[in-house]
Structure formats: C-alpha cells, structure tokens
Amino acid sequence: MLPVRLILSATSQLGAEPTSEEPAAKALARFLNGDLAGSAKHCQALLDGGSAVLAGKQGDFTLGGNAYAVTITSKTTELRALSVKEPAVTVPTTEFVELVAQWLGLLDRPVVT
Asked: 100 burial class (0-12, 13-18, 19+ CB within 10 angstroms)?
C-alpha cells in the first residue's frame, strides 16, 4: 500500500495527502493533487500504459505532466519533478497503477448536492 490517503469531501472534492514524511509519499500526493487533478484523460493514459507494461506488451512507458514526468517499468514507477529541485522517487508499479485506478474511480463520481 502506497503512503497516500485519498480523500473525497462532502462536496465531492477529490484530494490526496501523504500518510508519512517520506519523499515518495509527499511526491505522490503532489502528483495526484496537481498533474491528475480533474484529468481523467491523463489517468487513463497512465492506466493504459501501466497495464501494457505489466502485461509485457510494451517496454517502459513515460508520460510527462505539468509538474512530474512518470516512467513506468515492469517493477517500479519513477516520478521526476520537472520544475523544482526534488529527488526522483520510485514506487512499485503494481501499487502505482492501483492508486491511479482508485483516483480515477473517485474522479468519475458524480457530484453530490
């Protein structure tokens, strides 16, 4: 389980917060709240690329966003900050793909009024 908690507020506002002070936790939360905020298309691209890599249908998959570039390999996924001096972090690919799928599932929820 990755060190990030997904939060859906009463107004259906989606967010992520780190559950530890580890660099990976902070980077993942920033990535979700920034690059993936409201972007079902970006989420789907990561899911499609990650699934293809995990299934052995393609080699590494790289996708750039607003603040991070993501490189998915069969074992690990690397997040590299594009504009700030922050060390790249790696997380297990299977857990990263699951996290993005959860994020997309919450992103697609209808707004509760």
From this structure: buried
pTM over 0.85, yes/no? yes
For the segment 10-68, what is each residue's pLDDT rounded down to a tens digit?
887 899 999 999 999 999 999 999 999 888 899 999 999 999 999 999 999 999 988 99
- If one counts every other C-beta atom within 10 angstroms of the C-beta of residue 95, the result is 16
